[in-house]
Structure formats: structure tokens, C-alpha cells
Design a protein that fits this description.
Layout lengths: L2 E7 L3 H12 L4 E5 L14 E3 H7 L9 E5 L1 E5 L7 E4 L6 E4 L1 H15 L2 E4 L1 E9 L2 E9 L5 E11 L25 E10 L9 E6 L7 E9 L2 E9 L7 H11 L7 E11 L8 E2 L2 E3 L15 H20 L5 H4 L1 H7 L2 H17 L2 H9 L5 H8 L8 H10 L4 H22 L8 H13 L7
Parallel strand pairs: 1-2, 1-11, 2-8, 5-13, 11-18
Antiparallel strand pairs: 3-7, 4-7, 5-6, 9-10, 10-11, 12-15, 12-16, 13-14, 14-15, 17-18
């Protein structure tokens, strides 16, 4: 396929869902991937995904071998690991940990059945251009070394955080750099446990502390005696590598004692709002390549799936109208960023609160329930959390002795509302982007929380 409607780089979950939707709508769709076909789906990942993403996209729920464990709750621990918040009975949290390979292979099969064509074991070198407009890609066969090009009306970068396309485009609409504090370096293992889970349907998340300074650790069940366990830290700062911190966590946390690793690996994950614009002339970005990741825990499967469905529909519209310019593709921005994207942006404020507040203040907040389970779920939904008069009085009474913590919560609640409003008013055309960016950046820059 030397000329196609759409070429998609990367056969991860976002890439496969986008390819499926494009093909379903009659677009000639080429999906290119560096791995061999049988390795597609294998990725270092937390493996957890909620039902809400399937309900929003119409993609069938995982089933059979795709399901490692059903998830119906979470325990969220402060740094001292006591007085945890037990999150139960929230439908938005219900879901699964999946077998990443089996699930990824299913998404691939669905894309191919819809009519997408797969080309594997190629290295994409970058985009090709007609003037300033992206009009294809050039790539090399990893076996023969043969170099080729593909022309496309739209190029879609779903190549992950490394993003082989985004960094090679000089456009005022394309964001190429990310601050180190907005990158989580992660290490995780799939473990066989000596003892079974007491609650195999409950995930565990650990904030800060000596195991995950300025970050988080997790234990996601993958069966009665199996778990996905890892550590992610942000911003560097000489606190140790994720692998060394993970080793300490594994050695000292009782549930993990004498567990056996059957798979391991590490990687980098963006933990901030998505890129300012998901499109430019002839090109669009989806999944980790567009930084569509939950800033609190780094999960990105669901966001990529949601965006992939939208992008396929926008691509069809743009090609039908013969307008694949930035303006012609802009609907992808307004459909995703005004809706699910604003949830991710709001969570960046919450992430900054959790990162800035001291371990001592966080321990106090959990112990006195200045921070409640409902706050975590409201934040996760992008709703912020209630700081009305009644709530302020209750929290103030609980928070006697730590007035700074209450002020930080009030500030975070206010900023989350502001950024939510800003994203609801995402510009309807490229002309309004610069003014909007300044507004959002001012909100982000003010999200600094002290323990004073």
C-alpha cells in the first residue's frame, strides 16, 4: 500500500482502535508496527482498565483469557501505610486487570477484520511533507533494510511516549517537549505470590513515602495469587531509581514476601494534561503520543481507546470534505479535549497537590479524613471535590492543627473548577489556541502547594 487514506504508526491499544474505526468507516487504512505480529500487545503497563471506557466506546468488554482479574474497589494508602481510604461501590472504578497480550491481540484482530492492513517489523524514520503539510511517512524494513515511503491523506501517530512523528514536526500547534517533573519513570513486575489475596478484587495504591517518593506504588491483582506490582516516581531529584525503590518495596511489604517474578520491565509515562492540540496539517496524535494518560496513576488504555473512536470519525469527516488541514481536523480537539481531556487536565491539578504536600501532612489528612474516598473518586471523574460551606466546616474541624492542609485542599478545589471550565471552552478553531493556552498555563503555574 503506497497510497492510503490513513496511515497509523503503532499497534498499541490506541492505534488498533483508531485503525478499526477508520476501516469501519471505509477509509483505506494502513497500520505499521515495529514489533512482529505475535508480539503486539506486549507492553509494560499497569494492565488495569475500567468498564466505563468500554461503555463509552462500544468496544466489547474483555472476556475469557483477556481477563486476569475483576476489580471492584481500591485501597489508597498514605505514606505511613495506615488509615487507608477504602474506595468501594463506585461504578466508575469497576473493571478488570487484563492480560495485556491477549487483550492487545483481540484489538488487533478487530482492526484487521474491519479492513485495516497491517505491516510489521518496520522502523518509521519520520514524516514526509508537501510544503508544511504532513503527507506520509518513510520507513525501513528491519529484515531487509529496504527503505520505502507511504503517502497518506492523514498520518496518525500512535507510537507511544517516544513519538516518532510529533518530535519531527515544526508547527505552532505541535508540542514537542515535556518537563521532567511531568514524566513518571516506572518499574513493574508480574509476580506469583506465596499467599493468596484476602480481597482479590481490590487494587492497592500507595502514595509517596520511602517506597515511592513524589510518586506512587501499586499492587493490582491478576488472580488469587498473582499481581502486577510496580513503582513510579516523577521529577528525578536523586531519590533513587524506580527499580531500586521497587526492590525495597518488594522485600519489605508482607504480601510480596518470597514472591516470584515471572515478567519484569520499566518505562516512562507522561503524567500531565494532553498536548495543547492533537492535530496539525495532515497529522493527528493519539494515546501516549498525545500524553493521554491519567496523571495520578499513569493509566492510558481507556483514554487512548476513547480518543481512537473519535479520531476515526474525525478522519472520515475531514477526508470526505477534502480538508485535512489543522482546521479540517480541529474537531478531534473539541470532541476529546472538551470532554474526557478536561478530566485528565483536572487530575493534573490533583497530582500536583499530592506531589507537593508533605508526607506528614498527607498522613494527617488521611488519619483525620480531611481527604475522603469521595474526593478521590470525584477527582478521578474530573468533577473536582466539594468545598462548599458545610464541607469546609467539617474539614476545618477535622483539620485543626494543620490549617495549611485545608488551605491547599481549598486551593486545589478552586483550580480544578477553573481548569474544568477552561477546557469546556476549548477554542472552536485554531485562531483561539494561543489565548486559551495562556489561560490554562496560568492556572497550571498557580498549582503550587506548600506545607506551611
Amino acid at each position: 500500500m503506497r497510497k492510503v487514506d490513513v496511515v497509523i504508526i503503532g499497534a498499541g491499544s490506541a492505534g488498533c482502535v483508531t485503525a478499526r474505526r477508520c476501516a469501519e468507516l471505509g477509509l483505506r487504512t494502513l497500520l505499521v508496527e515495529r514489533k512482529d505480529k505475535e508480539s503486539i500487545g506486549q507492553k509494560v503497563c499497569g494492565d488495569e482498565i475500567s468498564k466505563s471506557h468500554f461503555d463509552a466506546t462500544g468496544i466489547e468488554y474483555p472476556k475469557g483469557e483477556e481477563i486476569s482479574s475483576v476489580i471492584a474497589g481500591a485501597d489508597v494508602f498514605p505514606p505511613n501505610m495506615v488509615n487507608e481510604l477504602k474506595v468501594r461501590g463506585w461504578s466508575d472504578f469497576d473493571g478488570w486487570t487484563v492480560d495485556r497480550w491477549a487483550f492487545g491481540q483481540r484489538l488487533l484482530r478487530e482492526a484487521l477484520r474491519a479492513g485495516a492492513v497491517l505491516k510489521t517489523e518496520v522502523h518509521v524514520g519520520g514524516p514526509t511533507f508537501k510544503g508544511a503539510t504532513v503527507n506520509g511517512i518513510h520507513y525501513k524494513d528491519l529484515h531487509t533494510g529496504e527503505k520505502s515511503t507511504v503517502q497518506a491523506k492523514i498520518v496518525i501517530d500512535a507510537s507511544g511516549f517516544a513519538s516518532v512523528i510529533r518530535k519531527k514536526i515544526d508547527s505552532p500547534y505541535v508540542e514537542t517537549e515535556i518537563d521532567k517533573k511531568d514524566i513518571a519513570l516506572c518499574y513493574r513486575e508480574i509476580l506469583n505470590l506465596k499467599m493468596p489475596f484476602a480481597e482479590p478484587e481490590v487494587a492497592r495504591v500507595f502514595l509517596g513515602g520511602e517506597y515511592a517518593p513524589n510518586g506512587y506504588a501499586w499492587i493490582f491483582p491478576k488472580g488469587p495469587k498473582s499481581a502486577n506490582v510496580g513503582v513510579g516516581i516523577t521529577g528525578g531529584g536523586g531519590r533513587g531509581s524506580p527499580k531500586s525503590l521497587y526492590a525495597k518495596f518488594k522485600e519489605e511489604y508482607p504480601l510480596l514476601f518470597r514472591s516470584k517474578a515471572i515478567q519484569s520491565g520499566g518505562g516512562a509515562v507522561p503524567v500531565r494534561r494532553p498536548i495543547w492540540s492533537l492535530v496539525a496539517d495532515g497529522v493527528a496524535f493519539v494515546g501516549d503520543a498525545a500524553w493521554m494518560v491519567n496523571p495520578i496513576h499513569g493509566g492510558g488504555i481507556g483514554a487512548g481507546m476513547r480518543a481512537g473512536i473519535i479520531l476515526g470519525e474525525v478522519a472520515k469527516e475531514a477526508i470526505a470534505r477534502r480538508n485535512t488541514s489543522t482546521k479540517g481536523l480541529w474537531h478531534f480537539n473539541t470532541r476529546f479535549l472538551c470532554n474526557f481531556g478536561r478530566r485528565l487536565a483536572s487530575l493534573e491539578i490533583f497530582k500536583r497537590l499530592l506531589s507537593d504536600v508533605s508526607d506528614d501532612d498527607m498522613n494527617f489528612g488521611f488519619a483525620k479524613r480531611v481527604l475522603e474516598a469521595g474526593d478521590l473518586m470525584a477527582a478521578n471523574r474530573g468533577d473536582g471535590f466539594s468545598m462548599g460551606i458545610g464541607s469546609k466546616l467539617v474539614r476545618a474541624k477535622r483539620g485543626i492543627g494543620k490549617p495549611g492542609l485545608l488551605r491547599n485542599l481549598q486551593k486545589a478545589a478552586s483550580l480544578m473548577k477553573k481548569i474544568d471550565k477552561a477546557y469546556r471552552n476549548y477554542p472552536s478553531s485554531p485562531d483561539g489556541l494561543e489565548k486559551w493556552k495562556k489561560l490554562v498555563q496560568a492556572i497550571i503555574d498557580s498549582a503550587v502547594f506548600t506545607s506551611q
